[in-house]
Design goal:
By secondary structure, the protein is an alpha/beta fold. It has 11 helices and 11 strands. Helix 1 packs across helix 10 (299-315).
Length: 337
């Protein structure tokens, strides 16, 4: 297996991407293709203990910055994101991982790899911890404007992911809305509710923002605008909580003692909610495997993203999504007929 990694993506590239790629190659025993400016990559690579690591460099002379827009995506023909995506298209890599510009990765994946048959809009999905295990949020930013049948397709892709990767036989599907009652929501969610209720999926109805971490649903479906806002609010809440906790501890001697006694347990809690443990968001519905990590990822997060890409390939998730989409379309046509 070969996984291509965008060495130039993220806030701390190429240092963390190269380090993460070396860690991933050693831990997962796979070949990693580092895509980016060759001289810069080799300079970072030389600083590391890379014995046992199978890492090769694919030269890409341009990089797309985190704040650049669609004109740059089109103009930069030798960008690391375009070259890395093309490696998957040409069969020279089994998956592509980037912690760079999300919009650029989504754009290139759609343009170069294309969508699976029956999928109108590929969606970004992300595993988040809940009180009982993990919940998959879909979409978390790829599509800010959606129609009801898009949300239905997101639900099918989320169902397939949870069944294939996490082994949940009949994942519970929830629809993000402003209330649990089926009459709540806007026109998009109301019509999507009706479509999901008529589908063969294990649809449990509407869920609210608080249910992201409650474990009520295995998959929570939303449009990309709502999903991204919910995700960013959650990230900010976690960071604020730990900052406030550290600040309060420093004010009191007895609080410091309590913190010391609880330090091991707090580390376990933080590990459960640390995004670096889960790697990144999966772009579901494209004709290839693509993982998009957080721009602030450290080397462990890069390593986890490569591991997630490997799991995707091994479990043939995209092939299963294609099959599920085809079966659902057939069932729905029979119902409507």
């Amino acid at each position: 297996m070969k996984v291509a990694v965008d060495a130039m993506g993220g806030d701390f590239a190429p240092r963390v991407t190269v380090e993460g790629a070396v860690k991933a190659s050693k831990e997962y025993n796979i070949e990693v293709l580092l895509v980016g400016v060759e001289d810069l990559i080799k300079k970072e690579f030389a600083k590391l203990n890379h014995s046992r690591a199978r890492v090769n460099v694919i030269n890409a002379t341009e990089a797309i910055g985190m704040g650049e827009g669609i004109l740059s995506f089109r103009k930069k023909k030798k960008s690391s994101i375009r070259v890395g995506t093309q490696l998957v298209k040409d069969g020279e890599a089994d998956a592509f991982v980037s912690i760079g510009n999300t919009a650029a990765v989504v754009y290139m994946s759609r343009k170069i790899l294309g969508a699976l048959k029956g999928v109108d809009k590929p969606a970004l999905s992300l595993l988040v911890p809940n009180l009982k295990g993990l919940t998959l949020l879909i979409d978390v930013g790829a599509n800010v404007n959606c129609r009801p049948h898009h949300l239905e397709q997101f639900a099918v892709m989320g169902h397939t992911f949870m069944k294939s990767v996490l082994g949940i036989k009949t994942p519970r599907i929830g629809l993000m809305s402003v209330g649990e009652e089926e009459t709540k929501g806007n026109e998009l969610t109301k019509e999507a509710f009706d479509r999901l209720e008529a589908s063969p999926l294990n649809f449990i109805g509407n869920v609210e923002g608080k249910d992201i971490y409650s474990g009520k649903a295995d998959v929570i479906v939303s449009d990309g605008f709502t999903g991204n806002v919910a995700l960013k609010v959650s990230e900010g809440m976690v960071e604020t909580f730990f900052y406030m906790a550290r600040t309060e501890v420093m004010k009191n001697f007895f609080a410091k003692i309590g913190f010391f006694l609880m330090k091991r347990n707090l580390k376990r809690i933080y590990k459960k909610i640390d995004y670096s443990e889960y790697g990144g968001a999966q772009l579901l519905g494209i004709n290839g495997v693509c993982i998009i990590g957080h721009g602030r990822s450290n080397s462990n997060a890069v390593k986890s993203a490569v591991g997630l890409a490997r799991d995707f390939v091994l479990n043939k998730v995209q092939d299963k999504i294609q099959q599920e989409i085809a079966e659902l379309s057939h069932r729905l046509s029979e119902i409507e007929g």
